Amino acid sequence: MKAIVFERLGGPEVMEYREFPRPELRPATVLVRNHVIAVNYGDTFFIRGTYLVKPVFPDIPGMEAAGVIEEVAPDVHDLKPGMRVAYIGMGSYAEFTRIRASRVMVLPDDMSFEQAAAFPVAVLTAWHMLHTCNDTRPGNVVMVHSAAGGVGIAAVQIARAAGAQVIGTVSSDDKIEVVRRFGAEHVINYETHDFAQEAMRITQGRGVDLILDAVGKPTFLKGLRCLAPLGHLVLFGRAGGLPERLSPTELLGKSIKVSGFAVTMIYAFHDIHQRAVNAVFQLAREGRLTVPIGASFPLAQAAAAHRLIQSRRSVGKLLLIP
Ligand SMILES: NC(=O)c1ccc[n+]([C@@H]2O[C@H](COP(=O)([O-])OP(=O)(O)OC[C@H]3O[C@@H](n4cnc5c(N)ncnc54)[C@H](OP(=O)(O)O)[C@@H]3O)[C@@H](O)[C@H]2O)c1
Fold it and tell me: What is residue 51's three-state secondary structure?
């Protein structure tokens, strides 16, 4: 099969499009023929060796895709060849990926592979932060950093669907309109404006109830300053560098909390995972959740997709087509 393969750590230049042995089934797995593969910012960490999961060379990047089940291990009974599925699992930048059956989501008939590929990581991450880590309710004010990105634009819509008021941040003015279109009442260019001051102004000095932060260093401590009493900051990434250290005693004054989130661990909790899958598919069916596709590339051009997501110019999800 054709795949993107890398044998040393580094940037986009380490990825090579070439022949690679097709994976063989193991117990409790299925083989998926990938139709659409989604790019995640975490993929850029993976090829640098700084992601939670470390590569074993030669390795294949990628952590989600949508496609059709090609083969099923004899001990897997609830999935069949021909089923349309999406999944979270490593090694998706390839024509075929072997995946644990428990990581597979069967797709609604009316969901395109393009939309489905964008759901497992970005949409479920956004949903869990708003509804598993937090109890987001009507009237809450939610701040979403990097709101035009894959997770960001999903979070804006899911927060709106929960009845929250959304403040998005972006690093350039040309992303403002798209974030507004997906439901944010306020969008702050956090390169040209102090987002904490702006949030205090917008909330008339009260602050925001929830901050979803995958930027890290430039936003973490400043974010705590604009949290309302009893507010909550979920840290789920560090695109802008490792956040400053924080003493827990600094949380006491406003009774605020900081938590972390990684979507990969949620698969161990079947009921919580299934609740999220049902909820996001329902929102999609109701037309309240859709992931805009910023650009599609042939799989062979994965390096160009990485350069685009790292450039901070991308909007929504980037896709690779095998
Ligand atoms: N913990 C989890 O389970 C989990 C799951 C998925 C994603 N994530 C994290 O969530 C974030 C978003 O992921 P995504 O795949 O949806 O990517 P994305 O948001 O589509 O693209 C990354 C965005 O990060 C922002 N960014 C801020 N500082 C940056 C910097 N110094 N360099 C490059 N980009 C910077 C940029 O938006 P602005 O310039 O407009 O801010 C950029 O568009 C990433 O940090 C990722 O690691 C975590």
Answer: coil
The count of other CB atoms within 10 Å of the CB of residue 296 is 15
Domain ranges of the chain: 2-122+265-321, 134-260
2-122+265-321 CATH: 3.90.180.10
Residue 104 sits at the vertex; the CA angle it makes with 102 and 109, to the nearest 5 degrees, is: 140
CATH code, 134-260: 3.40.50.720
Rounded to the nearest angstrom, the distance between the alpha carbon of 127 and the centre of ligand 1 is 16
Which of 47, 121, 312, 317, when mutated, tests ligand 1's pocket best, judged by the most ligand atoms within 8 Å of its CB?
312
What DSSP element (H or E) covers 48?
helix 41-48
Pair 238, 214: CB distance under 8 Å? yes
Tens digit of each residue's pLDDT, the chain (322 residues): 999 999 999 999 999 999 999 999 999 999 999 999 999 999 999 999 999 999 999 999 999 999 999 999 999 999 999 999 999 999 999 999 999 999 999 999 999 999 999 889 999 999 999 999 999 999 999 999 999 999 999 999 999 999 999 999 999 999 999 999 999 999 999 999 999 999 999 999 999 999 999 999 999 999 999 999 999 999 999 999 999 999 999 999 999 999 999 998 888 899 999 999 999 999 999 999 999 999 999 999 999 999 999 999 999 999 999 9
Centre of ligand 1 to C-alpha 22, Å, is 31
